[in-house]
Amino acid sequence: MAQVYAARRDRLRERCTAGGSATALVSRPANVRYLAGAAPEGAVLLLGKGEDLLVCADSPAQPGPQSEQGRPDEALRVQLLPTVGGDPAVAAADVATAQGAESLAVEEHHLTVARHRAIRSVAPRLRLADLGGAVEQLRVVKDEEEISCLRIGAEIADQALSELLESILVGRTERHLALELERRLVDHGADGPAFETSVATGPNAGRRGHRPTDRRVEEGDFLSVCLGATYRGYRCEIGRTFVIGTSPTDWQIELYDLVFAAQRAGREALLPGVAYRDVDRAARQVLDSAGYADGLPPLTGHGVGLEIDEDPQLAPAAMGKLDACVPVTVEPGVHLPGRGGVRIDDTLVVRPEADGGPELLTITTKELLAL
């Protein structure tokens, strides 16, 4: 992996040099992890003129290779702050000055105003430039090792969900079911949940971002579940909707079939070269044509990786086109106030048609089951 991290830093260095900065300071934790193999709390990465440094406030732990925290690149020198309470970003800027750097690209979207001022005060002659989203752009296309981590995380999430569906659900609260799912994720080898697990029943079902409550599952309810597993730092997502205890009613079947058709249209649009907005349009127009234009979520899906919500954004105004080896979610849904709704969510990897088209990572059935 040392060669992988070095190659990533070299690609970033090329971008920085093209932008007029020979050095860069990376402070956003996910970006530090991507380039250095680990991101101890508060650590920053300096791409220096002489050498690259991982600057830490404390000595980084030495976790196992499968830890969520990761293992620092062994080829990368770690520099500890000499005093307690110092700021690694400020110390890194001081090192850059000592190396003879004239400019330093920083992640202005992550640094606070106070840290930016502190860097200027310790290195007044250092010209600060904006690194922008350069690292995030590098992270969009995943290598096969990254995709393997996502694939394993998806298998864990599928397993946790399938086990829950085999248990008795009527009478249990949304909160209890969410906690059980998160426990099962860890039991099956996940670092932890990729985000707060959502379990929604009855009138809450299908509501995006629903936080579990003490409402109990009742017969005839829609039950929508959205969960994800983190594995070696990489996060996936799955969402499914079921009916509890009885055969679904006509309106439930109709609504489910509609959302399923929208989700399938979005999945089938995931090919290299397709515009982000066109994937969103493929799913959205199915729901629009059925009269559900109002109240639809602002996007149909998003990238996943070291963070659960990464670029690209599959939204009506999104700019850009898909590349191969980009993992994304496709997650349309409809919520009817007071009645409930449906959400179906998969994580897939964009693949060319010659390789079989989009690779589905989350494989739990999308059939409307009565549990």
UniProtKB/TrEMBL annotation:
UniProt entry tagged with the keyword Manganese: no
Domain Creatinase N-terminal: residue ranges: 8-141
Region (Disordered): 192-214
SUPFAM superfamilies listed in its UniProt record: Creatinase/aminopeptidase, Creatinase/prolidase N-terminal domain
InterPro entries on file: Creatin/AminoP/Spt16_N, Creatinase/aminopeptidase-like, Creatinase_N, Pept_M24, Peptidase_M24B
The Peptidase M24 domain, residue ranges: 149-351
GO molecular function: aminopeptidase activity
Keyword rRNA processing: no
Keywords, alphabetical: Aminopeptidase, Hydrolase, Protease
CDD domains cross-referenced by the UniProt entry: APP-like
Name of the protein in its database record: Aminopeptidase P family protein
Organism of derivation: Streptomyces montanus
